[in-house]
Each structure stands twice: as C-alpha cells, then as structure tokens.
Specification:
The protein is of the alpha+beta class and 448 residues long. It contains nine helices and 19 strands. It has two domains: 218 residues, PmbA/TldD superfamily (PmbA/TldD fold); 223 residues, no CATH class. It is 23% helix and 37% strand. Strand 1 and strand 2 form a beta hairpin. The longest helix is centred in the first third of the chain and has 17 residues. The N and C termini lie far apart (55 Å).
C-alpha cells in the first residue's frame, strides 16, 4: 500500500499520462485497503481473514464526452495503456452537457483540517482473537443465551488520493477497528437472535469487548417470547440503533441527482417547514475521529460543517458538480468516489439535534404504542415518501416497555412522519449518522 503522498504522486502521474494521450481534462483516484479479522464461535477459532486491495481509476474528458476505467496494475506500462484506452472510449461516448471537472476556482487546497483518523497501534492476530473471545464469553454468560453465531474483531487501514488536471492533488489515510458479537437465546421454536457491534478509527474509542458482548446477550434474551399487536394507528418510538435510517431517507431525497431527475418526495420543498420548528440536522465533515470525516470531497472541493436542516427547514441540496450544473446551482462539496466512474453524493458525519426529554419522559404519556429496535425490508418509496417496513421491538403500555413484540409492520408517509418527529435527549456520537431516540405519533401499525 502506498503512503498518501505516494498515492497522490501516482494519481497525478496518471492524469499527466492521460493529458499526453489527448485528454482535454482528467482526474484519477487511488484507493487501497488492508484489513485483518478473526472470528470465534463457541470459543473456537472459526475464521482468519486477511484482505488487501489496491486500485487506481482514471476519468477522462474529450469535450463533453467522458469515460472511466480502472486497474489494479500500477506499473508505468499499464498506466499508459489505461490512459490510451480511456481516451478511445471517451471519443466513442455520447455527449453529456453536464460532464466536467469541478469548478477550478472552488477547489480545496492544503493545509486541510487535522482529522485524527490514524491509530498508530496495529493489533496482532492474537490480540484480535482475545477481543473476539472476550466478547463472545461475555455474551454467553448472560442468563438465557443458549448458542452463538460468533464474535469477530478486525482492524484495517486505508488510503485515498485524488488528482485532477486543473490543479488539485490530495490524499489521506485512516484506520478502523471493529468488534461484533451475535448470539442466540432460548430453545427450540422460541429462539431469538440479536447482536451488538461498534466501529471506530481508534481502538481506544471502542467500548470493551465484554461490554459489547453483554449488550448482544441482553438484547437477544430481551426478545424471547414476543407477542403480537393489533393493527391500528399508534405512536411509534424508534431506538437510536434504527432511528438513523429515517435521516438516511432524508439524505437520499435531498441528493442533487434525485432532485435533478425529479424523483424525490422532497422536490419543491426547499425552505418549507418539513420538521417541527427548532429541529436541526447538522453535518460535520471535520469532526476529529468521525467515521465519515474527510478533508475534501471526491472532486477536490472543500467538505463542510453546517446544517442540512435548520429550524425544521431544508437548507439546500447535496450537489456534486454534474447535478449542480443540471440544476443551475453550485456544487456543495458532497461528491464521493468509490472505485471509479462518475462521482456520487455522500455526506460527512450527520446528527439530529437532541431534544429536552429523556427517553422515558418521551414515552410517559403513551398509553399504547410500539418501541422499535429492528427494521426489516426496504419498503420505502423515494418518489412518494410512502414508508412501510417490517419491525420488531417492544410494546409500550402506560409509558413503560411491556414485553417484546414481533411480526409487525410500521407504515406512514415520510413527510407526515417528519412533521410529527420528536427527539429525546440521549444523542450519542459514535455512528456515521447520530440520532437520539425518536417518537412519531400517528403511524399505522399492522399486526394481527
């Protein structure tokens, strides 16, 4: 794996080869990853996995025609061939009026924010195995846990670099550590499964493996003997482990490509009151050690810190350069690159601002409702906002959790759901999308 500076140099070299081959403009990305993971099941070693990948991708422009191509061969001869093939492909491609590099005057330049995404310590396979064993042992020690799907611990490192023909060159590295435990509780047909996992750039930011294992075991036992609920309109409370998916649907709906295609349920809602007044959804791409922190976007533009939703109103769309041109707007630094091809849209670390009530206070006046801990399926229509997903969790009776429930569906429309959304005060900062417990009144629950 190359260092960030070596990766920048290699990407810049490929861009220069493309220009010599006849490209009007070009950009190149280098991406490499290496990881090692250990999986344990029932106290025995089940799998040892080591993976390494290295890839360079080139995008070239011939007028308004473009093409992308990639290779894992970084030799000079292979890079020359890559450039020549890309140019030949571009000259045969159809014209795209919105194709092109990001505006040169908006490019980001060093020095970039210090994001602290590199943990210098590299755990040995023995250390990873010990962590996995510790996590599984803690989960299996929870009364009611009867079997294990396994526990794993992994560590890895990645490097990303981008170079363009109009003056941008940058690169950065990051590390990642994760622990995961999944166990089974109960016997026979009454078995239930659940899990817990955490991921961080620095190993010291993770809870202990025993904490993660105990949480997995407690969750699995808590699901035993689920009941059913009657169908009808009910308040639904989303646990933070699933509440972030609601913000994810918002992010997809405000992406520039969805707006440009007119395929978003939030079309023409810019500036409208979508959430309750006071609601804030913020983005921080420069948060130290954040899972989605990055110094620049996939086109070399500055990433940002700001609010995507302010006082309940959407502040703008998420735009790469192509969708910005299509909409007659400016790009917002949300371009992402993965492997090759044209940029897509991605965000930095996102959070939904906490409310003033604790989760128990948020549920206190609910006579009959549902507390959701798991969502199943993909029943969300991004064009209409219609929402329908399988769910399981707990029944809420007189403001208290009153036993597990399963085999139910929660449904509504995202616009109506956003308007009714009330956050609790238990916001924690360790996910890519950080969201407190959320309450939404008036959803339709389908059970028996």
């Amino acid at each position: 794996m190359l260092s960030p500076q070596q990766a920048q140099d290699r990407a810049q070299d490929l861009v220069e080869r493309a220009r010599r081959a006849g490209a009007d403009a070009a950009d190149a990305i280098y991406a490499a990853n290496a990881s090692e993971g250990i999986q344990i099941r029932l106290g025995k070693l089940e799998d040892v996995e080591r993976s390494e990948s290295e890839h360079i991708a080139l995008r070239v422009f011939a007028g308004k025609r473009s093409a992308s191509i990639g290779s894992s061969d970084l030799s000079p001869a292979a890079l020359d061939e890559l450039a020549e093939r890309a140019i030949a492909m571009a000259r045969l491609a159809p014209e795209d009026a919105y194709a092109g590099l990001a505006p040169a005057e908006r490019l980001s330049h060093a020095p970039w924010p210090e994001l602290d995404m590199i943990d210098p310590a590299e755990p040995t396979p023995q250390t990873l195995r010990a962590l996995a064993e510790e996590g599984e042992d803690a989960a299996r020690a929870v009364a009611g846990v009867t079997n294990s799907d396994g526990a794993s611990a992994s560590a890895g490192r990645g490097v990303f670099a981008l170079a363009t023909s109009h003056g941008f060159s940058g690169g950065y590295a990051s590390t990642n550590h994760s622990i995961s435990v999944s166990v089974v509780a109960g016997e026979g047909q009454a078995k239930q499964r659940d899990n817990a996992w955490r991921q961080a750039h620095h190993a010291h930011d993770l809870p202990s493996a025993a904490e993660i294992g105990t949480l997995a075991g407690t969750r699995a036992v808590g699901r035993l003997n689920p009941g059913r609920v009657k169908s009808g309109p009910l308040p639904v409370v989303f646990d933070p482990r699933v509440a972030g998916t609601l913000v994810g649907h918002l992010l997809g709906a405000i992406s520039g490509s969805a707006i440009a295609r007119r395929s978003s349920f939030l079309l023409d809602k810019l500036g409208a009151q979508i959430f309750r007044p006071g609601t804030v959804i913020g983005e921080d791409s420069h948060r130290p050690r954040g899972l989605r922190s990055r110094p620049f976007d996939g086109e070399g533009l500055p990433t940002r810190t700001g609010n995507l939703v302010e006082d309940g109103r959407i502040t703008g769309w998420l735009l790469d350069s192509a969708s910005a041109r299509q909409l007659g707007l400016e790009p917002t630094g949300h371009a992402a690159r993965s492997g090759g091809g044209s940029p897509s849209v991605s965000v930095g670390n996102v959070h939904l601002g906490a409310g003033t009530l604790s989760p128990s206070e948020l549920m206190a006046d609910i006579k009959d409702g549902i507390y959701v801990t798991e969502l199943i399926g993909q029943g969300v229509n991004g064009v209409t906002g219609d929402y329908s997903r399988g769910a399981s969790g707990f029944r809420i009776v007189d403001g208290q959790l009153a036993g597990p429930v399963a085999e139910l569906t929660v449904a509504g429309n995202l616009l109506a759901m956003f308007a009714e959304l009330t956050p609790a005060n238990d916001l924690e900062w360790y996910r890519a999308i950080n969201v407190p417990t959320l309450r939404i009144d008036g959803m339709t629950v389908a059970g028996e």
